[in-house]
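Minutes, methods subgroup
Present: GH (chair), OT, SY

1. OT presented the first of two proteins processed in the latest run. Sequence and structure tokens recorded below as shown on screen.
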Amino acid sequence: MTTTMDRLWADYEEHHRTDGNKYSHMVGIPLIIVGVLAMLAIPLFKVGTWPVEVSLLVLLASAAVDISLDTRLGTLMLVVTLALYLGARLLGWKIGLALFILGWIFQFIGHGVYEKRRPAFYKNLAHLVVGPLWVLNHFVHLRGPAPEAPARG
């Protein structure tokens, strides 16, 4: 039985076959994540002495989606993203914006120069969530390729 994640994963992999594109994503996606976390480090309120920022709430919402798609990989993504958040919140929005733009440059170089195909999120915005999981999986190998869909007859 194929899951939603299996279908998204297979489609994402279809758009990321060349090594150059894969390497571009290994650099670009973490830069985008750190950039977003830095730009959204806007304090809303405090819990004790710790400020709760917009970036932390976005991180937690994203983690909920990630964990619903793949429990093990999503949980690990939460841990990794929390570590990135702790550093990103200290950078300031200008550095965050620069990292965000640089990350997207890597993405579009990967697709334009190496893959010669439009990014997967043009077809399905859910790939903006799958991309970071896909990158993390290249380092930890928790998830294999999506199972083949049964042939329609």
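2. SY then presented the second protein from the same run.
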Amino acid sequence: MKGDVSQVSQKWLVSCKHFAGSNKSVTPNDEQSILDRVRQHGADGFMGFYSTLPSNALVDRLRAMRDVDGPNYHVWDGRSIEGNLLNRNQTDLMLRYLPKSFQSIRPIAPLLGRQHELPCEVCGRDALEGSLDGGFNANELFAQDDNRVVQRVLIACKKTCDPGLERRLYQQHGWITAWEDITDLCNPLIYLRRFFATMNSIRDNPGIFSDAAYEDVQQLYTALAQRTLRSPLPADEQRYKDILPFEGF
């Protein structure tokens, strides 16, 4: 096959070792008779897929096999497997089969030792923590009065809590609500664009947000920064390009 490892067609003998539980390295005792196995299957090289690292002794043995007998080798350890899945925009695959690795790569990073929550206004569920299970399941609601001043910016769970919250805000205050899915705000590129758009709106029209709504926005962007301020993934860049025409840019 041709790919990242080789641009020439080769047949590989693939060996998988899963030692994530014990976290021990893969040793020559775990990979015995490599050359014999390669020859038995008529392979051109040996490829190891390991959840942990190969030991120095195993790497030395693989190098000696290549230098003396000719078969090539390539080892994918846990970190290189994770990195390639992310670089190839396989976050859905990681979330399904490697959820712990996904969370460790895209964790919530507390600010100054404190984790800022993003609670639902109705049930209190932390939307930020819940986002680690497969994306945000919450909307950002902008509650406006008759003068189109934003009185509150609130978080509510999709479909379950936001309809009731919208009704309550209208019945109690006469506020009309608009909402946005906050999933996009976990994209660092979209996060920054929306943040500065909000700041520009406040600068152009200081009265557009009430004091309470302004505090809500501060809390929202502070909490989301814990999940968002990271290097953009290819999927982030594509999504950023996708939404530009709809935002007038």
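Chair's summary of item 2: The chain is about 45% helix and 15% strand.
Next meeting: continue with the remaining queue.
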